[in-house]
Amino acid sequence: MRVVATAGHVDHGKSTLVRALTGMEPDRWAEERRRGMTIDLGFAWTTLPGDDEPVAFVDVPGHERFVTQMLAGVGPVPATMFVVAADSGWMPQSTEHLDALDALGVRDGLLVVTRSDLADPELARDEALEHLGESSLGRLPAVCVSGATGFGLDHLRSALSSLVGGLPRPDVDADVRLWVDRAFTVRGAGTVVTGTLGAGTVRVGDELALGSRVVSVRGLQALGESVDPVRAVARVALNLRGVGLDEVGRGDALTTPGRWLRSDVVDVRVGPPRGSSAAVDLPRQVMLHVGSAAVAARVRPLSVSGADVTADVTADVTADVTRTVRLTLREPLPLRPGDHALLRDPGAHRVLGGVTVLDVRPPALRRRGAARVRAEELAATDGAPDAHGELARRRLMKREELVALGAVVPDDVPGAAGWLVDPSWLPTLASRLVEAVEAHTAEHPLDAGLPAKAAAQALDLPDPRLLDLVLAEPGASSLVAAGGRIRPREAGGLPDAVRAAVASVRSDLASAPFSAPEAGRLAELGLRTRELGAAVKAGALLKVGDGIYLAPDAAEVAVARLADLPSPFTLSEARQALGTTRRVAVPLLEYLARQGRTRRDDEGRHALR
Known about the structure:
A 6-stranded mixed β-sheet has the order 2-3-1-4-5-6, sandwiched between helices. A 6-stranded antiparallel barrel has the order 7-8-14-11-10-15. A 6-stranded antiparallel barrel has the order 16-19-18-17-20-21. It has 609 residues and is of the alpha+beta class. 29% of the residues lie in helices and 27% in strands. The longest helix is centred in the C-terminal third of the chain and has 18 residues, at 426-443. It is built from 18 helices and 31 strands.
């Protein structure tokens, strides 16, 4: 299916034209038919000659009082059928509709001059083409018709077929974001919402996010028939399970759960209105139109004439403002970088310019000069989802957030614990980690390194598991992780006096590895409880029991000697094989048992595992 929205001044025959093309009545309300004027969105569809794919029309109101409804209809639609009456020519709402289409960046369309039976259509056609040529639509194909006589309708159907046939093919595997343009109830079914599915696929039974809750799709219809699945592009009606009519309405969005970020603060680039080479004044308060949503927003320029703008600015932002601004929305919306929207002045009811979303998770601006720096950062981006660019700006972000921004996570991006790190930032982190460990060692010389949790905090990392990425950097090669701490690789991080005392103990043990030094010898060397604990944490000594300290490889040496004994063996046999006393042999065997290296039978004998 393809979807086309009408556009044009009130009473120029948009609904009549849709009615002639489809044989359906797009005006749904009796009041519309009584007044002969569309006041809300209408919907109809047909199959063009020679095409298997149907075309659906979103018929929008043309009166200036219903511009919000018009924007809700054209916002999600990729192409327009712009209508101008031959007997009236270009009119004020023609301009406003074209301004809106231009601001939204709509590039595909068709000009239709109606009422060609009432006046020569060429003058209206040429005038309209001149206006259209100054917009994103450019020079459109034009067809002159009469809904009353049927003149030109076959030519129009052919032109429509060419239009929809040339539209970009949708991504049916994309994440779903369906902007709701209508909600109602059906007896026996419950709440039904409709919208234009621009990308992705929806199936019966799917779960979709509606704000902060997840809802289930009970049924699907497209063009009045039950279908499953529905693939973009399509006009679709979704029957939602367990959702009241008061819980959903126009402007809401149904999205793939976990794949979109809802934001109420966004950084955007605002282009000048159509036909203007300079920015118009941006009032403090504006309306943001995106999809079918219309949300009030507060404008904060990121810099004005090179000067920072503080949060308490109350005056309007004048025309010399940079076109990069921050919008604070009255309610959060599911947006992504690259989304197109428009701003309207809520007082003057005019289009202020088109919007390109640049960042939906912008940083806070707390320091003086931060707004100007932020504007400079955003000047280098076009809003297209870019994994490397996002990481370069943020340095660190959750994988799920990067995916929700619409970016593909590259295989070469380092990550751990669900986080991704900008590769170019890792050398800086390595340098900072070395400095943090050195500072900790200088302040706490007997500690066996900086605890991993404290190291992560020093580097502003959300998870200590990210330290493995930092330690893998060449700049951190002097460090090693052991026992939940980060310490210098060389010398174990012990003070010189402690390291010398430990060396004396190791020298004593070299010829008699299981002759653990007595308490008096340890005290003589200055190895008290703190020093001994530091040596053990640093891996310089092995504690096998209270007051029993051996060389770090003592367990392996003991197992090698005990392997020569017949199994099982007694404590006495073990003591003799190790060449030590009962004071050392008992805690050593208990240590080996705790390590799973030996086991003890019911008779108290020992055996290697």
